[in-house]
Each structure stands twice: as structure tokens, then as C-alpha cells.
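Hi there. Long-time user, first ticket. I'm pasting a complex I've been working with (about 970 residues overall). I'd like to know whether the download I got is complete or cut off, because the file seemed smaller than I expected. Thanks.
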Amino acid sequence: MTDLIQTVKNPLGALGSIYTDQYELTMAQGYFKSGKYEQQACFDYFFRKVPCDGGYVVFSGLDTLLEVLSDLCFDDEAIAYLAEQGFANDFLEHLRAFRFEAEVLAPREGELVFPFEPVVRVRGGLLEAQIVESALLNVLNFESLIATKASRLREAAGPDKKVIDFGLRRAQGFAGMQLSRAAVVGGCDSTSNVFAGYRDGIPITGTQAHSWIQSFDTELEAFRTYADAFPEKCILLVDTYDTLESGVPNAITVGKEMEERGERLDGIRLDSGDLAWLAKRARKMLDDAGLDYVKIAASNQLDEHVIKSLLDQDAPIDAFGVGTRLVTSYDCPALDGVYKLSQVDDKPRLKLSESRVKVNFPGHKQVLRLIDEQGMFYGDCVVVDGQTEPDHMHHPFDDDKHVAIEGFDNETLLRPVMNDGEVLVDRPSAHDAAAYAQERLDRLPGEHKRFQNPHVYKVGLSEQMRDLRDRTLQTARKTHLNEDR
Amino acid sequence: MTDLIQTVKNPLGALGSIYTDQYELTMAQGYFKSGKYEQQACFDYFFRKVPCDGGYVVFSGLDTLLEVLSDLCFDDEAIAYLAEQGFANDFLEHLRAFRFEAEVLAPREGELVFPFEPVVRVRGGLLEAQIVESALLNVLNFESLIATKASRLREAAGPDKKVIDFGLRRAQGFAGMQLSRAAVVGGCDSTSNVFAGYRDGIPITGTQAHSWIQSFDTELEAFRTYADAFPEKCILLVDTYDTLESGVPNAITVGKEMEERGERLDGIRLDSGDLAWLAKRARKMLDDAGLDYVKIAASNQLDEHVIKSLLDQDAPIDAFGVGTRLVTSYDCPALDGVYKLSQVDDKPRLKLSESRVKVNFPGHKQVLRLIDEQGMFYGDCVVVDGQTEPDHMHHPFDDDKHVAIEGFDNETLLRPVMNDGEVLVDRPSAHDAAAYAQERLDRLPGEHKRFQNPHVYKVGLSEQMRDLRDRTLQTARKTHLNEDR
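Hi, the file is complete. Here it is re-exported in full:
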């Protein structure tokens, strides 16, 4: 089935090249016409704010992105459409021969990344590096957002509870194709979404809806029929009529009948009402009936805060089915990642702004992760490419703040993942990426992981990097604002 | 290009059948095994809450849904995958022959729809009507959400300003394939998204990014080169270095040079800072230079509230580029649409709940839209299928409230759109659906359209419908709770 799985990885196929904002192509034509298109450009993907006021982002989406970039071409249909839109013939002939051959650097999927540091770096011809902007942002912003949200759910649920993606029905449309993998990368155990299971080889799960129960004359008949059909993994939805008056007693009846046949009822699911209160009552009823092995699953508008609250109340819930609030990242439905030009040929570039945090860092950069003696992450230092042992790290926006970082071990975060059209790294399974994310989270101090006012993880600039930024800034001000500072 | 456009309309293709929650297939196997699968079932799609605390929802997504339902089949790959997941062979053989042949009723795309009324009705075999649930919800919830958000932007901008979807980069992943059409249905003029232009035949638009400007040594050179390449539709982004010190003066220089060549600068775009203040200053600078025909476009975290505020301040902005907050419906990123079983064979069905608003309306239903003497919408009456002239309408949850509705004209909202696997209606273009939505909005009284505390549009039940609901409720309580009320 491998071939087809490769195909469903990139549902855009050859049309990925027009999964883009028109201005990318307009600029590309401008670069082509003005002869600038082969100038060597470097772009950085980064973000300025962590979603949900959290302390970290789980990097995800690289797998999908590599698929899209590998398939990138302008086929006859795309060329014909662009011709109708008024693009020039010579430019379109150039696109017909186009392949994406730029160098791409990125962390491993599941890596923890932080505001302002370069997360993905693309270096190649100005035209080719420019036109991938929209698709790159679309994929990385979304999958990293969902992986981050899932990670928060896992953080709330702890290592021993199940957390399951139930959200396809409320997902933002075709985002449903790709989100479940990101959810697993971030910490979910499985998904209800069959397509995602097929696409990404992740575990799928599911039992019955209210409609199953309603389609029978009685709840008991509905439960019995389900237990007959699925004796191996029978989870009964107990809230269709009344959870404690009808659902749980009927589930107990069926559970005891299963026991007599040498089977075991797997669980019950609560989907409405006060979940903490109901779970405690249901647990007691099940235990009193000798069904202490029957698990309790809960769903209904869950998020990390509700899960934390339920567990703080000692609600005996074994599995959480999370829908809308995971799959849309409901309280923060976008990651604000941007893709900024940082160098053209040998000239570092930046955009000026009244707001200092909106000035990007110019030049070719790398990120060194600083590791303390306990193996925990201390901070990330953005350095000029090639620099290995900075001794100081400067706050990016506050000139008064700097720290000595001699003696820390460090790791290089960005590694080449694609060049000359070839993917250079093994493509991790969702499971492998998830294991990596968890391993990294274990090394991130707890104060960066809490939900309320997490401590800001240090991201700074090496002296060389800071000097490059300041020089480029001065030059830009002189050039563009006739200032002489 | 028509064939290919049909293909990109449904990127799921034959795998649409597994774009579903596993429990749909688990239940389907249960229905199959227990012999219930051919019972005639009726499901209703409806929602309980309008997104963004608004007063109406613009129905969208039918076009995509009809495509997905028409293509629905279980191909060899899907069957093989489901076999690996443990589904039974006889059931999978049944799926191999499966085609979706149920009857689907729906309003026209662009129709205004309201909480609690059936929006889409699916009637057919229990198995076939069940397994389309996840895909139907996924598509309709999302596209209606975006159309509704776009409609609010249009409401804020008024009829004469341009509103453009700029959001692909922050869209929730592959949702970017389908969202722009919904945005146009709701009231956007065009999109930056080339794929969407291709897929849905909607206008695309775009100029240049900061990276274009940065790739040149000076802003003036960047503007000149762009004007040379695109003299017909040249819009210059003026905030890369300093909007009023650098961007606008350089744009004026280029605009005057274009005038000398007999060309016209189309516009400038503001993308940061205080847009009202900058637009006024820029307008004056342009006017003073004799460039009063040059338009001003604005972007940067716009939504309906910011647009309204800008226009309330008389900001001279001609076009709004809206990104993140449109494409994710940022302040309310999900429509809570559900799909509930309302009848099996001749038995009306409902789910009980402690919360009265969560009890669904049973039976086969239709919606009559009541029209007053001025042709304005007065309210919607949910009736038992076939009922045409109800004389009273009852509040669905408050027994004390009812109104006489004799003498109102009415329209039937739900019409057959698919049956026996055939699509029965003309598929509207985005433009046609948008025109229909606008025509309907013009007939919705203003109090339902305001952003703050909109007046709740009346949705009620005919006496016959109310009686059916109450009888079914009593029966359900008797059957499932041993109550005798």
C-alpha cells in the first residue's frame, strides 16, 4: 500500500505549485523579467508568539512539506490556468522546466522551538525560494499548531491516560486530512479519523454514536447488539437517555452478560453532563457490580484546562476524547509563522519597523541549543552560520540583557533536510516524531510548560549575530531613511 | 479544463469513503451484522449556536459535499486497509458494492439558516445515511463558518469597498483548498489563493511582499522594477522601511513616472502601523501630488470589528485584505453543526438530555420561511413534512410563547438535491451563490445583522411538529426512564 500512501500524503499532487498566493507568482515573474531570479536568496521561517500563551511550540509538518516540495512542478493544467490569468509566456515556459532545488534546513519533527529563532531556512535561487512561501507557511503553521495543542493536552492528562483525537467533524474542512498525524506527534494516542490512520499509519479507534442507540427500540437492545458484534473492544455510550438511571445500569447488565460468556466489557463513554460527578458515580456503580476493570472514557468540549480540572477533582476517567478544541486549536486557531528574506547574494536583508520585535534577523543563521549539566535545555542561541562556541548570548531586543554561556554543551538545531530536489533525511513516522517530542519535553524545565504565565524560554543572539543585525539595521536606516546614526 | 476542475473539487477522490470517524464504520458493520442496515433512516444536520455571537449563518459547502457524496465508494485500497483494521470480510464485501443512494434535501448555497432548524436532511438506508455523517459535518461546518465570517466582513465594509481573502498562509492546512470559495459565497470579492481560483473559478489577486522590496538595494528601485513589469495593475507595498518617510514618497515618484508614460499607478498597500492615521496621511500626500486616483489597500490582522472601526474613523481605505481572522474564523473557529437521527422506519427518534435545547426534533421535517408584506424574512417555521399552511408557530423550548402566522407568505427551504446517486440541482458558481446570499441578506431585517447582541431570529415549531416532539419525548421517557408522565 506504500505507493498510495505516498500519494495521499500530498493531496495537492502536481497542483501544489499553485497552492500559493498569487503574489508569489507575480513576484516570480518580476524576478524573472528583471533578471534577478537566480540571485541567491535566504529565507527564514519563524514565529513571534506561542499559541495559547504557552511556553513552547512542537515543530510538526515537515513530513507533509517535504512531500509537497518534492512534487512541486507546473504541469500543463497549471500553466494553462496561469496563462489565462495573464502571466507572460516566457515566464510560463521557465516555470514549465521548474524544479525545487533549494537547500532546506529544519529541525527534526517533534523538536521544541521558540519565538524569534529561525525554525526552517531555505537557501536557493530568489525565484524558487520565494514561490514556496505560501505552501510552507500553510503546512508548518497548521501542523505545528496542532502538535503544540496536543502536547498541552498530554501535559494535562499525564503519561498514563489515553488522549484521543475525535475532531474530524469540526475540523476546518480538508485540514482533517493532515491534522491527526500532528496530534499524534504532539502526544495523542490515536484518532477516530480513518483517513488519517490510512495516510499516516497511526492507530484508529471508535465505538458507537447516539444514533446507534436511538436506532433500537431500547438502549439495552442497542448495547446487547453492539456487545455481540464487537465483544473484543466494546465501549458503550451511556448518556443517550439518562447516564445514571439508564445508561450505566444497562451497561452493567450487558457487562455481566459478557462475563458469563467469558468476555469483558472494555469501557463506557460519558459524553454530556458534569463529567467529574458522573464519572465518580459511574465508577462506584461499576465497582459495586464487580466490573472494576471496565474503563471510563469521557468526551464533550474537552481541552487542556478541562482535563486538568477533571483530574484535579480526582475524576476516575481513563481516556479523554478531544474534538473541536484540539483540531481547531480553538482558543488560538493560528500560529503566526512568517517567512522573511534575510539575505540576497552576500547582502544581509531586513525589514524595518517601528516595533523592534518586528525587525527580522538578517543573514545566514543557525540555532545552538544550550544544555546544562543535568542535560536540561537552558536556552537557544541564534548564531551566524558556522559559529560554534559563542561565549555570550544577548537579549534580542533589550541591549542591557546578556548572559555568559561558556561551559554549556550545545546542539545544532537546523540540519539539511533537502537539497538539489532530494530529501536528505529519513522521514520519521508519527510515532517516532512523538517519541522525540516527548524526550525533548522531558528535558524542558517545568516552568516553561505550565499553562499560566509560563516562564519565557531564553532565545538570544551571539555577539557576532547581534553585531550583524545592528550593522544591517544601521545600513538600512541610512539607505532608506537618510538617517546617519 | 473542466475535467480537472471536477477532480480538484474533491481532493479525497475515492478515499472520501474513509474520510470518516471509525465509529461510523463500526456502527455500519453492526447494522450490517444485525440485519438493520436497510431500515429507512432520517438524519438532520443542524446547529445550535451562531458563530461569533452573530445573528445568522450563510449556508455553504453543498457544492463540495455533493462532489464527495457522488464519488463515494470503497475502492480496493480502502477495503484492504479496513481489512487490516479488523473489519469483517462479509461486511467489506458489502462495502465493495456500496454506492450512496439516499435522498438529500438542502437549501441553496448562500441561504441564511438559523439555530435548531434542519438545514440538511438525509433519508435512506440506515447504513448509507449513517456513514456520511463525518464527511458531511466536516465540509458543511467549515464552509458555512467561513461564508458566515466573510458575510460579516462584507457587512462591515459595506457594498462599495473591496474585501479580499489573503489567508492561505494561516489557513488550517489543506482547508486552504476550499475556504476561498466559501469566502466569496459570503461576500469577498476575490482571493490571493491561486489554487482556489483554479478550483472554483473565482477571481485571484496579488502584488508583492516585503521580500520583493528587500531583494533590491533601494525601495525606489524595487517599485520602479515592479511598475515596469506590471504597469496594468501596479499596487505598491509601502511599509517595508517607513510608510510616510519612504514608502509613500517613493510610490508617488513612481506614480508620477508612470503618468509620464501614460500609465496609472493602481494603488498602495499599508500593512502595519495605525491604518486609519496612515491612510489619511497617505491619502493627502497622494492627492497633493495629483494622484487622487491611486487607491489605498490595507491589511494586517483585520476583522469585521477593525474594518468597522476604520470606516467609522473615515479612514480613506478602498480595499481590505483579510487573512488569519477570516480564514480560521479566529474568534470562533468552529460551527457546532451536528447530525442527528430523527426517524427509523415509521418511528420518530430523539436523544434525551437534561438540557432541553439538546433534545433534537424527531420525524421528517421541512422548514417554511415566513415572508412579511414587505418581502422581509419574519421567521422560520419547522413543520412536519408535507404541512404547508401552519397558523401558529410555537417557541421550541418555551411553552408559553407562540405567535399567529396566518397571512404570511412562505417559502420551502429544503429541496431535493440528490437522490439515487444523482445530483438533482444545478451546481451554482461561487458568484451565483454569493449573489443569492446578498439577495437574502437584503431581506433579513437589520437587527439580526448587527454585531452586538443581534436580535434572535424566530425559529419555531408548527403545532403538529410540536405535538410530534412532545409525544416522542413522552414515549422516550416512558421507555427509557420508566417514567409515566
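A couple of notes from our side: Chain A has 17 helices and 21 strands. Chain A has two domains: 2-147+333-377+414-452, 152-326.
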